[in-house]
Design brief:
- The protein is built from 15 helices and five strands.
- With 310 residues, the protein is of the alpha/beta class.
- The longest helix is centred in the middle third of the chain and has 20 residues.
- It starts with a helix and ends with a helix.
């Protein structure tokens, strides 16, 4: 009898689920113990590598965590709602909220480390989360998204922001973060649409202003054409300040922020008052968009100072 109960308990730790059962199998169940959700597909090679490894680790935790597997081919709408862009994608839920996630096939040691982190974020099992717990879970997820973004994992950060928005659709920080991720992925219209969803009274602050300006600059860059053609115009006429400004906008949109700053400083050096100091104003706009701590902002300010105060 004990052997039967043990087998049943082990089976309960790993289960297949779908869109209709997601609320019960993941959100509700994660109020008892953390639940990992593995989005996979039968044709996915890395999924076949991750599947046995993550199941082994989960079973080895002896009930501290559960695993729910979602076939994306059979649950495409759910995968879309969760922001799944590539598989395998694993999201961790605790207290009914997303708290962490990763993409790709990880070795057992990394899976164990991931689960340890999830368990450290989980609320106590003997206390049902109250409204304040929701705030805690959202904050933790936002911190995880910021960490992923800082490490260059833009896709993963975007997915976590989308998970937060599933539970807190009006969360301004998540909307700003998602817009920033979409912009980095070249989805300018999507970024602008996400920003428009922020409540008017929350459309302020350094983070919002930076992303809004970045979206505006990206929209402007999309209309200016190729950087090579603009460089040729400057080579033919070094005093073509509009071409230098346009080149800076395009370079910034492509991620070459230092090159953008240098192009504007070159214009300022040749004629700082051209068109009511247009190059300097654009450079200051870049600084606001990039943020004061960005290396390009730091270097750009140094270059600007050397021109203005030399």
């Amino acid at each position: 009898m004990q052997m039967g109960n043990a087998a049943e308990a082990a089976t309960d730790l790993v289960k297949e689920s779908d869109t209709a059962s997601f609320q019960a199998d993941v959100l509700d169940a994660s109020r008892e113990v953390p639940v990992l959700v593995d989005f996979w597909a039968p044709w996915c090679g890395p999924c076949r590598q991750l599947g046995p490894a993550i199941e082994k680790v989960v079973k080895g935790e002896n009930g501290k965590v559960k695993l729910v597997k979602i076939n994306v081919d059979e649950n495409q709408a759910l995968a879309g709602q969760m922001g799944v862009r590539s598989i395998p994608a694993v999201f961790a839920f605790a207290g009914g909220q997303p708290v962490d996630g990763f993409m790709g096939a990880l070795p057992e040691s990394e899976i164990k480390r991931f689960i340890e982190g999830v368990l450290s974020k989980a609320p106590a099992n003997d206390a049902a989360p109250e409204e304040s717990d929701l705030d805690v879970q959202v904050r933790q997820a936002l911190e995880m998204a910021e960490g992923a973004y800082a490490e260059g994992a833009v896709d993963q950060a975007g997915q976590i922001y989308q998970l937060v928005l599933q539970q807190a659709p009006d969360n301004a920080k998540a909307l700003i973060g998602l817009a920033r991720c979409l912009l980095d992925l070249g989805e300018i219209e999507g970024a602008a649409e996400v920003l428009s969803q922020i409540k008017p009274e929350e459309q302020s602050g350094e983070a919002f202003d930076a992303v809004k300006k970045a979206v505006g600059l990206a929209e402007e860059a999309a209309k200016l054409g190729d950087a090579g053609a603009l460089a040729q115009k400057i080579e033919a006429d070094p005093d073509d300040h509009q071409a230098r400004i346009d080149l800076a906008i395009v370079l910034s949109a492509k991620g070459d922020r230092v090159g953008a700053a240098e192009a504007l400083v070159a214009s300022i050096k040749r004629d700082r008052e051209w068109s009511e100091a247009a190059a300097r104003k654009k450079l200051l706009e870049f600084f606001d968009s990039w943020g004061p701590a960005d290396p390009a902002s730091v270097k750009g300010r140094r270059l600007l100072s050397s021109v203005l105060f030399s």
